[in-house]
Amino acid sequence: MAECAPYDVLIVGGGPAGQAAALRLHGAGLKIGVVDEQPRPGGQILRQPPATFVAADWMEERSYRPLKRQLGRFEAAPDVEWLGGSSVLGIEPGSAPGVHGLTVATPEGATGIRTRRLLVATGCYDMPLPLAGWTLPGLFTTGGLQAFVKSQGFVPGQRIVLVGTHPLQLLVARQVLQAGGRVERVVFVQPRSALLRPFLRRAGGGLVGGNALLAAARAWRDLGAAGTKVAFGLKPVRVAGEQHVSGLVLARSDGTEEHLECDAVGLCFGFLPQSDLPRMAGLAMERQGRLRAFSARHDEWMESDVAGIFVAGETTGVAGADAACVKGALAGLGMLHSLGRISEPSARKEAAPLRRRLARLLAFADLLDRVADPSGCYPEVDDQTILCRCEDVTYGSVRAALGTCGSANAVKLLTRCGMGPCQGRNCEFSLLRLMHGPSRCEDAGFTVRFPVRPVPIGDLTG
């Protein structure tokens, strides 16, 4: 396996946090690299089209403009090396004194990379929500559906229904309309009052996040103008269809059911931090938010409990792109200070306004977390429903295993739940919720092992 010259700073993740950190490090005379699975920078929120693909009016919504400006500055930085189309397979903290080692799958094969400082800014992903029929083609997470629209202007369905608790689905529905698609309905599981009242209570206080609220309001208005109904208080029961999605069955509060005909469904119930790399590296983790998701701990400079490894963005807790940018900038300052490129007084002076802004952004994120809380909204699932899609493990098999298993790892060994290509990203959260219910016991979850992404074995042996 090849190994390249060491970096001063290596950033894993080319989204808002990684870009902000790189821009703060830019110009300090450091060797900087940014690794990302996508060929082009931008992260999931921008999802740049391929370089050879012409996309008219790409991401023109005004809420994306600051992120696009940052992206332009990042791409123009001459001392930041872009390592796109590459996946980090594992991290070896302290592989040498003051150095951390990574194994990275690149288009040319697996490569070893060493770096003095490492920033993990790998973002988040949609919270999976198992229900009857969720393995049918045509069932997406809303983020997955949105990726088609953002990167290619492609709408994966003729009649789309979005359902969930998170207001993001309003914006996604509007993007589908702008791409020429048809949204049959946007369904919120919670009542209208539960969605709106918390925002209205805080509106008079100059709440940070106003741009996001305005974007959601504009999306709601445009959906109404297009004839798309926004409904409330309906809970998903099952996805209908034989070989492909043909509809979505919803339960009303009075116990009756409603069947919506469609050929694509997007689920939007919240987001989970990408925690596999921090957990593999042995970083201290904590549970955050209503979902009690795994998030990496850090100090005031975004440094983890492992010296020289920093974390930023949604890896430290889902709070949105604006907060991710601020956390990335703080991590950049922290790495500059730890490398002796900036004095502590200068770093603190520059960090002070960033910390004030971050506090306001986190307050808004907490409000959104409470509004979108899916507790009590999960559909009932029978024993035949698939829990682990990679290995076709049913809820029945897992429930039977729980009679003798006391941990997620034990269930994994007995049933193969979590042993597939996704390595638990699609099933771990659901398993822990099934095991511990509302108490959300602080189970350590699956042990994260090398490699955290699928890779041809020849890349490792050649």
Overview of the molecule:
The model has no long low-confidence stretch (mean pLDDT 91). The protein is globular. The protein has three domains: 2-125 and 272-342, FAD/NAD(P)-binding domain, CATH 3.50.50; 128-269, 3-Layer(bba) Sandwich (FAD/NAD(P)-binding domain); 386-443. By secondary structure, the protein is an alpha/beta fold. The chain has helices at residues 16-25, 43-46, 65-76, 142-152, 168-178, 192-202, 210-225, 276-280, 321-338, 344-371, 395-401, 408-415, 428-436, 457-461; strands spanning 2-3, 7-12, 32-35, 80-83, 87-96, 99-106, 109-120, 124-126, 139-141, 160-164, 183-188, 229-232, 235-241, 245-251, 257-261, 264-268, 271-273, 285-288, 293-296, 309-311, 386-388, 393-394. The strands form six sheets. Strands 1, 2, 3, 4, 5, 6, 7 and 20 form an eight-stranded mixed β-sheet that branches.
Structural descriptors:
FAD/NAD(P)-binding domain; 5-stranded parallel β-sheet; 8-stranded mixed β-sheet; 462 residues; 3 domains; globular; alpha/beta; 22 strands
Number of helical segments?
14
Strand coverage percent: 15-25%
The CATH topology of the largest domain corresponds to: FAD/NAD(P)-binding domain
The CATH superfamily of the largest domain is known as FAD/NAD(P)-binding domain
Anisotropy-based shape: globular
Largest sheet properties: 8 strands, mixed
The CATH class of the largest domain is identified as: Alpha Beta
How many strand units? 22
Contiguous low-pLDDT stretches (5 residues minimum) are none
Number of separate structural domains: 3
Integer-rounded radius of gyration: 22 Å
Q: What's the quaternary structure here?
A: single chain
Average per-residue pLDDT, rounded, comes to 91
Helix content: 25-40%
| Secondary-structure class | alpha/beta
CATH architecture of the largest domain: 3-Layer(bba) Sandwich
Ends apart, CA distance between termini: 6 Å
